[in-house]
Structure formats: structure tokens, C-alpha cells
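Annex B. Sample input.
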Amino acid sequence: MKWEASINEIELNKLKSQLNPHFMFNAMNSIRALVDENPGKSKDAITQLSNILRNTLQMGKNKVIAFEEELKIVNDYLALESIRYEERLKTNVDIHPDSKQFYVPPLMIQTLVENGIKHGVSKLTAGGTLEIKTDIREDKLYIFIRNSGQVDPQKETDSGFGIKNTLQRLQLLYGKSASMKISNEDNKTVLTELVIPKGIVE
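Annex B, continued. Sample output.
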């Protein structure tokens, strides 16, 4: 058991070390796109990115962080993307008050939100909506992320780096107690559903 735990720890650290450069690359690209077009807004974007980096650095090597801390990062990320997409991105966040009792893997929700914008909203000429909603059911945190767009059911939804990373981290941390799935809720909306149990606290 000790050997298995050590292997899991190594794998989790490996996944987290992959995640930060991936996130940084996309965030810097967002800012770069603004520099020539609107220097003032690019300064605002740098401020948002600084907030995100400060929070992520404070996480240290935690396997999980308080949901509220993750939500701060998500809100800063959405503010950063709203500067980039302007009226093409509309956001809505509806959080169950008891969500604060849960802990979640660092940057996991942010990664799924980023996925929804990158593969959904950004591909639509008129843009679209990104919605985050949480609920508590039987001592589990349900996180629903809806974004304008469609996923191709003929293609594997875990083909992207962020989705593969999310699935691997969930399995290593929670086994079968946690889950994630992505599907078309209707002909205009993609639904990502993430289920996190109580139990792991840093």
C-alpha cells in the first residue's frame, strides 16, 4: 500500500507540473493578443494574471484546495477572458452556499472552464455563454459547467490535454468516488459535469 501511495504521489505531482505551464501558455497568449490592439486593456489583463499567479503560487504542493480558493482563480480567469472576448463572452456563476465545505484539486475547475471557452464559445462568430453552477447532493459537490457550442459524439471527449489531465487526477485522488463527463445538453449547449466527494482535506 505504501508503494502504491508513493506512485500515486509521484503521478499527481507530475500532472500538476504539467498543468501550470499549460495554463500559463494560454493566459500569456490571451494577453499578447491585446497588447497592440488595446494597451490599456492589456494592462488590466496583466493585473488579472498576476492575481491568478499569486493564488496558484500560494497553493504550494497541496493535492486539494478549498473550493472558495479555486473559485477566486476561476473568477480572475473569467475576468481575463472577458477582457479578451468583450461582448462575445457572457458569464453567469451560481454557487450553492455549502460548496465552501468542499475541497477540490487545484486548477481543475479552471481547466474545465478554459476548455469550454476554447472549444466552445471562441469558435462561435457571435460568441456565447459560459455558466458555472454548483449543487450539493448526498455529501457530494456537483459542478455544472455549461458553454455555448457542441461536442462531436464521434470523437473522444478526453482527447484534449486538460481533459486527460482532469480524468487522471480524479482517478488518483478519489478512485471511483468522483466522476466527470462532457455531453451535449441540447443543440446549442455543452454540459460538463464534475462530481467531487468529501474526504480529502489539505
